[in-house]
Amino acid sequence: MEMEMEMGGRKKFIVEIEEAKEAKDGKPSVGPVYRNVLVRDGFRPLPQRLESCWDSFCHSVEKYPNNPMLGEREMLQGKAGGYVWLTYKQVHDLVLQVGASIRSCGVMQGGRCGIYGANCSRWVISMQACNAHGLYCVPLYDTLGAGAVEYIICHAEISIVFVEETKISEVLKTFPSTEKYLKTIVSFGEVTPEQKQMAGNFGSQIYSWNEFLLLGMNKQFDIPIKKKTDICTIMYTSGTTGDPKGVMISNESILSIISGVNHHLESMNQEFSETDVFLSYLPLAHIFDRVIEELFISKGASIGFWHKDIKQLLDDIKVLKPTVLCAVPRVLDRIYAGLLEKLSSAGVLRHTLFNAAYSYKLRYMSKGYKHVEAAPLFDKLIFNKVKEGLGGNLRLILSGAAPLSSSVETFLRVATCAHVLQGYGLTETCAASFVARPDELTMIGTVGPPLPVVDICLESVPEMGYDALSRTTPRGEICIRGKCLFSGYYKRDDLTKEVMADEWFHTGRKTFSSFPKENMYQLKIWGEAFTPLSSSIDAIWIYGNSYESFLVAVVNPNIESLKQWAEVNGVSGDFSTICEDPRARKHILGELTKIGKENKLRGFEFIKAVHLESYTFDMERDFF
């Protein structure tokens, strides 16, 4: 039996390839298996010439040697100027130099190489050197919490690390714990005599970028043979508890997801090409940006880097004039808010004209017109100003990591004259598993169909009352199968077995519709379980929502502590009245902020608003 699912009752995007399975032998029931209708008869094979990400890069070097590949803004008297570019051939030559220097330090195929810092040309050059010599590229970043850099260096047994100049001190702080493993540190910039001495005290050598390039001068090292199944990178991710997990991603995983994205976009005449320009600012330490940059490199396209100031990101966009922008909702929310602010200050006449044009274009897009056909005159007269504000060439905005609100997505689809596509994936699925389609307004608020490189199904979760065979929602846990899946958690076979069964990766996410949309927010654990956070707090419930920008909490204050504070600060009334006083909320929020600073939480992990609950959390009132 073949059953196709419709989106908005008009077009068919997925096809059933396997029937549902009833619960059996203690295993939960499983819903039908679906895949993209483009590959109903099987996935597109990878090109035979490609065995690794290095092969993909070399193919582009051969085909587009003089294309601009990596660009950075020239700094003139402390101000960012225009972009200065390295061609594919120039980058290739630098990669060979860096690779020879790495090998001269005794690092061989299968060794682990750390990269720590903001996106820049030297980040990608170091990454490609890892690709060339079969090293495991291991990004380091501190948003996983205090001690994460030290933990990753030790856990992955990293022997060499490339590091942004401003992050060198963070790496040096990991000694003596990392002394056993870390033998070579390479700065993207300069190093000081004091840094050299400190590294030397722990048996490690530290080099400036130019010093390091000299190590491999006039030395010849063969580029080793690499296979699709070889590990390309280990990306460390965190859940809400425990140490970071090292997600092992193979060459085949990255090449497969690139193939799937290409197939998806080609079917809609939106494929990437050597003329595309990409703005790199989302961290290369995360799989989303890493895969996108590998994709653009495979096309011979250009990658321009931001100049590391989020407040000046729009200026980077205006100067670079990208054709493609990858973003997280927080950034798109800022762009949206900025556009609305300009609109509100444009005067009544302009505001009225914009609203009329917006309503007209949206109405015709809703009728099924492509956005370039819905209101071409208004695009030229009204919306072109919005487009110019984003560089003038933007044709595709990809949003991931969290849900983008429907109102923001709709506005950007209409006003920017660019396609806005939401996607869903995890590090374990190599970033993208679902991607929406251009010119499909029915997909607003969804992540669209699965890419033509994965199979998906739902598995029942009986303990939560989720039935994959039911017609009601939520129906089950999202499971994903395909060549793009990770190869396991590094040194953690136990965790790998927990999430992998019969080739299926169990995402831990629950679906609420045929096309899943995640509404999850990972929270930092505030102290050990059942350990009092503060003498002022008896219990706390912390809530985060992917559509919001900060955490909130409901707090049970300690009665004696709060009354004592109230007496000192002239706040009168019984305990319940004190809890309702804004000054008490400010006091407790201050306590939580202090705890956050002591535990070195990141800005987005801080609680920004609290409600004080005078009644204790208890089961009798279903409040626990």
From TrEMBL:
Pathway: Phytoalexin biosynthesis; 3,4',5-trihydroxystilbene biosynthesis; 3,4',5-trihydroxystilbene from trans-4-coumarate: step 1/2. GO terms for biological process: phenylpropanoid metabolic process. Residues 60-490 form the AMP-dependent synthetase/ligase domain. InterPro entries: AMP-binding_CS (IPR020845), AMP-dep_synth/lig_dom (IPR000873), ANL_N_sf (IPR042099). It holds the Pfam family AMP-binding. SUPFAM superfamilies: Acetyl-CoA synthetase-like. GO terms for molecular function: long-chain fatty acid-CoA ligase activity. It comes from the Eukaryota. Keywords: Phenylpropanoid metabolism. One of its GO terms (cellular component) is endoplasmic reticulum. The keyword Transport does not apply. This is Long chain acyl-CoA synthetase 4. The lineage of its organism: Eukaryota, Viridiplantae, Streptophyta, Embryophyta, Tracheophyta.
